[in-house]
Design goal:
The chain contains 12 helices and 12 strands. By secondary structure, it is α/β, with parallel strands linked by helices. The chain has 2 domains: 144 residues, 2-Layer Sandwich (Nucleotidyltransferase, domain 5), CATH 3.30.420; 214 residues, Nucleotidyltransferase, domain 5 (2-Layer Sandwich).
């Protein structure tokens, strides 16, 4: 009896296994593709192929695999089912008894231990979102954010990189271009290679604005794998510039970008925790405090985690904040607990919280 958890975020997929004695991440437990990459059908198919291969390669005959996918929702369920359909015959003829589920990554963590259907999940990374639920909150999942990188995604590397450019442009317009100096602008131009021959003809008093303008324009051009390339600026460049350490270049604009992201995410956590707590008792003094689980690549960084912990510590409805980084181990625990549960509890695990936050059983 084996539980397998697959975490498919905005840029990659990881997996872990659980035989009942705790989750383990196998060697080679990461794939560079994601089923949440809506722009490239071939990439999504490769991620599904990788997931199916991992399941079939296991020696166990009874398997539950749970996929937590960024961007999965009730309205998107049909598209995800169509994506998996060509690969399900291989599983059906593998000689294994396989139960295969897919749900939104945050919804999956809401169902997994340690929250078990009561708390808040925050994804800080590509596909960032804040979701919360409680048995006494009958409206289903409460959500803030999670509307993809063109609209929100305030905890992602893409949003932070684009926010860097917005902050730098505003700073130049406020302070003036002449004599302007910013390590953040220098590193952005270096990373995206925007210093062209055109800039050699620009007068120095306009140079800073010309560089920032060219930077913004170059990022607006659609290029292969541009989303991942934009996001990768954050590691390590933005975090290095935001850090204050002796002998290291610091730019307060970089720190401001991190602080803006943290402020938005902490605000979402505060709103949802207060709303969930209000469902637990009419008397404010008797209300439960809500635990918060934080996952995602950005969340693993010490600078971001510390800022978020400090910001959330002032939320009166929050009981605790735990950061886990990769969510695959908890999804593996969820999958194993499904196999190890009586039918009534299995039904509760595979049931959707509400129509918008579906849990889909693929097999």
């Amino acid at each position: 009896m084996l539980g397998m958890g697959f975490a498919s975020g905005g840029s990659h997929t990881t997996y872990a296994i659980d035989r009942g004695d705790g989750p383990v991440t196998p060697e080679g437990g990461e794939c560079g593709e994601s089923i949440a990459d809506a722009r490239d059908p071939d990439v999504r198919a490769a991620a599904v192929q990788w997931i199916v291969d991992r399941i079939i390669a296991r020696p166990e005959s009874e398997i539950c695999a749970w996929i937590g996918a960024a961007g999965f929702s009730g309205p998107a369920e049909a598209g995800f089912k169509a994506l998996f359909r060509p690969f399900l015959d291989r599983l059906a003829h593998s000689g294994k008894d396989v139960a295969l589920f897919i749900a939104n990554d945050a919804v999956s963590l809401l169902k997994a231990p340690p929250l078990n259907g009561s708390g808040i999940v925050t994804i800080v990374g590509t596909g960032s979102v804040v979701m919360g639920c409680h048995p006494r909150c009958h409206v289903g999942v409460l959500q803030r954010g999670g509307f993809e990188w063109l609209v929100s995604d305030e905890g992602s590397g893409v949003w932070m990189t684009l926010e860097c450019i917005r902050v730098v442009l505003h700073d130049i317009q406020t302070r003036g271009s002449q004599g302007y100096n910013s390590p953040l602008l220098d590193r952005l131009c270096e990373y995206f290679r925007v210093d062209s021959r055109y800039l050699s003809t620009v007068d120095r008093q306009y140079l800073a604005f010309a560089r920032a303008d060219l930077l913004a324009r170059s990022l607006s051009v659609n290029q292969p794998d541009s989303k991942k390339h934009i996001a990768n600026f954050v590691y390590p460049v933005l975090f290095d510039l935001a850090d204050v350490r002796p002998g290291q270049t610091h730019d307060p604009l970089a720190a401001e970008v991190l602080n803006r992201s943290v402020s938005i995410i902490a605000g979402h956590i505060n709103e949802i925790s207060r709303e969930l707590a209000a469902h637990t008792a009419d008397d404010a003094r008797s209300r439960e405090r809500i635990p918060v689980l934080v996952a995602g690549n950005i969340a693993k960084n010490t600078a971001y985690r510390t800022r978020l912990e400090n910001a959330v510590s002032g939320c009166p409805s929050v009981a605790s904040l735990q950061t886990i980084g990769d969510s695959a181990p908890l999804l593996a625990q969820l999958a194993h607990s499904y196999l190890d549960s009586p039918r009534g509890l299995q039904k509760a695990i595979r049931s959707s919280f509400d129509p918008l936050h579906a849990v889909s059983q693929l097999m």
